[in-house]
């Protein structure tokens, strides 16, 4: 009996210690998370309103002046933010200071990886594009990594920026990226469990971070595009398939394993067209760029890509117009499902959907309106990406910027 009591006491003590350890860890995690969130809010407040004062920054972010001062000290030491003090006015009190993003502090590289090509963009910390380069893609991980590295270095030379000013790189890939930053699966590239970020970090000597390409584009729309003041929206785009960037509650939603957003595999048509995932009737089997080109090929049309499809539609090609009308109806039904489920403020169309919008939306909107709850429909809009072809590489820029803000001191180091 004594032994049993001792065991119970030992278990209770272990439980209390475990609880205290969990509480301490939770407190530490929460404080770190809050610090990162506040740093990002301060930076983006300055980005959206150049010349804002610390007091004005406190007002629009809701962060107290003491915390603002601590964050600004770090950002100024990193060379990311510039403070300008106004000339004395003769009035009592401290002179006013205004805050700006330092365009000369460093540069970020954003990369969009596709099978055929790799699109690389350099930008300042404020998101101003400094240069753009496209290089051939590859199914070989080694060749693709080399193309990205050499392309970034070539673009730095092209725009006359020293390599040491590269502060970070973000890469958008057409596949599933886990929370560990590894590519779990990229079907179009036939990559499995690939550590592309690790290879590039070692090759470039700066931090490289990966994200699913559509999630990256959604983040870019929020930071640099048309959704800067929108906390809830869905970005839908894709080439070989269809992906969704679910920007909900002011942040991208990844799910517990980082794989959320595969909206292309919503089932629209029972026992419908076959999909690359092995199932039938998926959303992307009807509205992706690949699906549209496949339908046209089966109808005897030889369109090579979305620009040629658009050109044929503008010329009044009946087969192309009928194909796009059918794709538009399925697009409307898919967007209605997303709207009813998530009730976002807006749905943003990117990629080929945006390029073909004038032919897809006339059939899309009636289907969307007929299948979306009226209360949800009247409070949301369907819009086109403001970043267009730069959405994914600018998503890479946004990812690199986010990680830089979470890991201060990169430029000083």
TrEMBL record:
This is Xylose repressor. The lineage of its organism: Bacteria, Pseudomonadati, Pseudomonadota, Alphaproteobacteria, Acetobacterales. Belongs to the ROK (NagC/XylR) family. It holds the Pfam family ROK. It comes from the Bacteria. Transmembrane segments: none annotated.
